[in-house]
Amino acid sequence: MILDINGLTKSFGAKTVLSNLDLKIEDHDRIGLIGENGAGKSTLLNIIIGDLEYDSGTVAKGTGKRIGFLRQDSGLSVGGTIISEMRSVFEKVFASESRMRTLEHRMAELEHGTREYAELSAEYEHEKNFFEAADGYKINVKINTILTGMGFSSFDPETLVERLSGGERTRLALAKLLLEDPDLLMLDEPTNHLDFKTLTWLEDYLTSYKGAILTVSHDRYFLDKIVNVVCEMENKTIVRYNAGYTKYIDLKAARLARMQKEYDRQMAEIAKLEDFIAKNKVRASTTKRAHSREMELEHMELKERPTPPPKPPKFRFTYEREPVKDVLIVENLRLEAGEGSDKKLLCPSVNLEVRRGEKIALVGMNGVGKSTFIKTILGILPHESGIIEWGRNVRTGYYDQHNSYLTGSKTMLDEMWDMFPRSDELTLRTALGRARLVGDNVFKKIDVLSGGEKARLSFAALTLKDANVLVLDEPTNHMDISCKEALDEALREYTGTIIMVSHDRYLLNRVPTRIIEMFPDRLVSYNGVYDDYLRLKEDLAPAPKEEKKPSQNETVYYRSKQQKSEDAKRRNRIKAVENEISACDDRLGEIEAEMTKPEICSDYEKMAALCSEIEELKNKQNALMDEWAELTEE
Questions:
Q1: 184 near 25, Cβ under 8 Å?
Q2: Nearest-5° angle of CA 490, CA 493, CA 494?
Q3: What single DSSP character describes residue 448?
Q4: pLDDT score recorded for residue 557
Q5: Cβ(172)–Cβ(82) under 8 Å?
């Protein structure tokens, strides 16, 4: 057992956030903590880690168990560097290694068999055992592996933490936490700021993680991949479902239906008893039976009336006129970002055809130009060369992930009225109400809205656009899970055309008919949803000796034979480098064993030679790790 929470209660003033909450975490649990915004998830995490006091109940931690927490403020040292933050995890191990080297030099200067030599030898053995138990010779490999996996291979290790962006600091804090290897890994929205490559690496790493995991996340694909238990914050306590996210949805619906059925059955039974009592209490012949029924009512354990979950938003995108078959044709588009001397070429030639009814998702590395592309085809950004041709009768509706077109000084209702001046108030408030923006909330200024409220406002407006083509830039950003589910359903039911950019892999597995991956020099198109894209991409990867021909499900807009050959050489070199790193590890272990032998310890020249070899092996290993990092990043 790692953690046992019983009867936990926490209030802020007159507001109770947690009430009589129970939670037990065993050694290998994988728990996803979900719930509406404000349900108390962060409060619970802060109580567990000890940053927040609680009013009553118990929080018991298993003896010797270590808990690691990914904090929103990163928790990194001011003035630290990337490598110093990572090495700080192993401060005691590095100190032990330094002490071992000092002892080696001192022992080499002494005669074997003396008292001082024996004392130093005993101390050396102690340090050696500690160092080996901590896997000391593999520390640099661990650090470089995790830094590469978390997307830092291209960074100078001496980069100051203060020069990193907020997202980069969060990634570095997560990398550091993974190195600490705690018994319970607590993560708060760990997939924020991660691209697909880093996400995949993190999921693979966490899948084989030895300890327990407790994660708060709105990433439904991540939850399905990592967790086997979903704990939902509901009515100030926790309801536990022993399932991943997708199965949890069905289990929750079945649980609520069962509770409602049991409640209704009891209410019917109570009504029947009360009716019997009312009819028979005044009769002498039946008064005893009526009294018996009264006693039965008094001792009946009343079923809890199930609280229905908060009503989710309801989005519905409709249009009147169908466009022509060829919705969009892009030919030889030179995609650029910035102006003047800051202008940057993103892709020299983009070609794309979109047919009516297609639902296309554009994916790719951060910064490759996905958002720039959709802004360019919409005319929001200019282009110098190439053709962008929209078909006849096309009417587009655009969602901007930053909601930058909303006017902060306006109320929600005024913003809607300015967008749709011919609409009546009932129509506008109905659209807002379906987006769960009701009552006096519609008079709130946009400046004070949360990210989720702004997103729902934008989609409320989009439902009135009469658009037969939706162009969406990260549509599920800022949304909680219930809003994401509602949007998924609306986009699946929509009969028009969709062109979207998204990192939401759960959405990408439900809506698109085609996934297009964007590279700096080409677009690659795959039929199907996200999992199809992963499978096809793996199947179509060129083998080292034999190239596979593209299948009918895949269209490559540009990829040369030379590039394929270079990819094969790179994969072969990665394997060779990994073998060399392993060989260095083996040799370091052999040297360590040799240095403990009495005949070696007493021979200064041999000890000096072995120390020199250790240094050479470490330098070689570091160089190999740098090469490995560069090869895997390409």
A1: yes
A2: 85
A3: G
A4: 46
A5: yes
Rounded CA-CA distance 399/459 in Å is 7
Give CA–CA dist 502/519, Å, rounded: 15
pLDDT on residue 180: 92
Nearest 5 degrees, angle CA 104-CA 105-CA 108? 85
Tokens of 293: 């029924």
Q: How many CB atoms within 10 Å of residue 428?
A: 22
Task: Classify strands 237-241 and 396-399 as parallel, antiparallel or unpaired.
Answer: unpaired
Q: Which of 167, 152, 154 is nearest to 85 (CA)?
A: 152
CB of 358 within 8 A of CB of 497? yes
* CA atoms of 477 and 504, how far apart (whole Å): 8
B/e letters for 213-222, b = 16+ CB within 10 Å, e = fewer, are: bbbbbbbbbb
Query: What confidence tier does 224 reach under pLDDT thresholds 50, 70, 90?
Result: very high
Q: How many CB atoms neighbour CB 497 within 10 A?
A: 24
Contact call for residues 150 and 126 (beta carbons, < 8 A): no
- What's the order of all strands across the beta sheet hosting 229-234? 67-69, 184-188, 212-216, 30-34, 229-234, 237-241
pTM of the prediction? Answer: 0.76
How does the average pLDDT of the chain come out, rounded?
Answer: 88
- Which contiguous run of DSSP H or E holds residue 469? strand 469-473
* Best CA proximity match to 497, nearest among 484, 510, 514, 485: 514
Identify which has the larger pLDDT, 447 or 308. 447
Q: How far apart are CA 404 and CA 280, in angstroms?
A: 71
Give the mean model confidence (pLDDT) for residues 291-296.
Answer: 89
CA torsion sign, 527 to 530 to 533 to 535?
negative
CB 464, CB 318: distance < 8 Å: no
In whole angstroms, give the CA distance from residue 207 to residue 28: 11
Q: What is the CA radius of gyration of the chain?
A: 31
CB-side neighbour CA atoms (13 Å) of 102: 9
What's the pLDDT at 559? 45
| Paired residues of 331 in beta bridges | 387
d(CA 410, CA 454): 12
Task: Quote the CA–CA distance of 345 and 336 in Å, as a whole number.
Answer: 5
Ramachandran bin of 217, using left for φ above 0, alpha for ψ from -120 to 50, beta for the remaining angles: beta
Smallest Cα–Cα separation from 199: which of 543, 570, 571, 534? 534
For residue 31, give Cα distances in angstroms to 28, 60, 71, 244, 314.
Answer: 10, 18, 18, 9, 29
pLDDT band at 284 (very low <50, low <70, confident <90, very high): confident
| Predicted confidence (pLDDT) at residue 581 exceeds the cutoff of 60 | yes
Task: Provide the phi-psi class of 68: left if phi over 0, else alpha when psi is between -120 and 50, else beta.
Answer: beta
Tokens representing residue 468 in the block = 């037969």
Sort strands 522-527 and 554-556 into parallel, antiparallel or unpaired: antiparallel
Residue 558 confidence (pLDDT) = 43
Using the structure block, give the residue that is written with the tokens 């002892």.
103
For residue 438, which amino acid is it?
V
Phi, psi of 614 (to 5 degrees): -60, -45
Q: Give me the pLDDT at residue 610, please.
A: 75
